[in-house]
Fold this sequence. Notes:
Distance between the termini: 31 Å
Structural class: alpha/beta
Order of helices and strands: HEHEHEHEHHEHEEHEEHEEHEHEEEH
Strand order of the largest sheet: 3-2-1-4-5-6-10-14-13-15
Shape: globular
CATH class: Alpha Beta
Number of helices: 12
CATH topology: Rossmann fold
Largest sheet: 10 strands, mixed
Radius of gyration: 20 Å
CATH superfamily: NAD(P)-binding Rossmann-like Domain
Amino acid sequence: MGGLNEEIESFxxxxxxxxxxxxxxxxxxxxxxxxxxxPREIIVFDxxxxxxxxxxxxxxxxxxxxxxxxxxxxYSSVVEATQGIDLVFHTAALKQxxxxxxxxxxxxxxxxxxxxxxxKACIVNKVKKVINISTxxxxxxxxxxxxxxxxxxxxxxxxxxxxxxxxxxxxxxxxGNVIGSxxxxxxxxxxxxxxxxxxxxxxxxxxxxxxxxxxxxxLLFQAAFYSKGGEVFIFKMEALKITDLLSxxxxxxxxxxxxRPEVKIIGIRQGxxxxxxxxxxxxxxxxxxxxxxxxxxDLRQISDYPGFKSVKIEAYRSDQTxxxxxxxxxxxLQQFG
Length: 337
């Protein structure tokens, strides 16, 4: 792994890098991690002025950081921001399933039209590589958010062969649930514990793919390094059963001297599934792997990827994947609590 880290360090060094949604949970961690690789310039692109200001204060000592107040829905702003850029990490999205269900066209404007703006601007400005952050909810989607992210994946895939594209490589990375990220279940549970309120659970049969923020950032950097255009990269993840998480929370509360929280079942929300999938049945036929990643190659132009080999997988579902150990869950709760 040391050799790979050195190659990734060399790949990222002296690059001009743009992060859309750069003040979000993932976006800011990408920024923080990139600083160690000595890029020439990092542009934090976001529409939230307050969070941009907070980041300016937090990272005031880092002269390579620039801040762009703009929205990916506005094409002219994206074109301006991508001028001279080598690498884009596209994290900006509407990702909350209930909100997207209630506001489907808003989800389309950000997740689909905004993504197409990124694609067009990067082609115009001859950006070398663009990494699109997708989600397990894009596989066999049952909700608006998942459908818009699947469409974004399709846009990024076909952008590699666009008639006006002679330079830019586009690839997608599918995340599972990033524990501790903004809007995820863990911060909500901690707020409920502090307020001495019941933990609101949709269904005790729920399972989800699980990754930490550092794992998510590592996946992005590896995908950027390996990408040749048109692929989908997936981190090898454990599954999180809601019942296991509740057991870990009980142990955490006992250690901290908190009252054992009650549980309130509120029912499955519109568009929500009991389990998630990270590959479709068609993709399972072509999947490759290395020690930490799965790779779904672009079948139009099969390439060799160093260290990857074909693998047979029957399914990649959160209800059929090994769960996270209680010790690991408790350690994560201690960290975030």
